[in-house]
Specification:
The protein has helices spanning about 10-20, 35-45; strands spanning about 45, 55. Helices cover about 25% and strands about 5% of the residues.
């Protein structure tokens, strides 16, 4: 759940989704990393504009032979936005 829920609407959706299934959330894991690592990881994210597939050039690169120049670097994944 990378950054989920981010809004009150998402929280309400999630709460109702769990309630409708008679499920509850018993555990949350919070992983903290320093700002430098956060910027490094987020800055490496790219999106395929055709499929909306998300890749990370460090941890989850596109398949071999894929033309990385076709990937989009979203404005919210650039260091100045992070």
């Amino acid at each position: 759940f990378d950054g989920f829920p981010r809004t009150v609407e998402q929280y309400n959706f999630w709460k109702n989704w769990l309630a409708n299934r008679k499920m509850k959330l018993d555990l949350v894991i919070a992983i903290q990393i320093n700002e430098e690592e956060t910027i490094k990881r987020l800055s490496a994210r790219r999106m395929d504009p055709k499929t909306s597939e998300i890749y990370n050039l460090i941890t989850d690169p596109p398949p071999a032979g894929f033309d990385e120049s076709k990937l989009v670097h979203r404005d919210d994944d650039k260091p100045e936005a992070i």
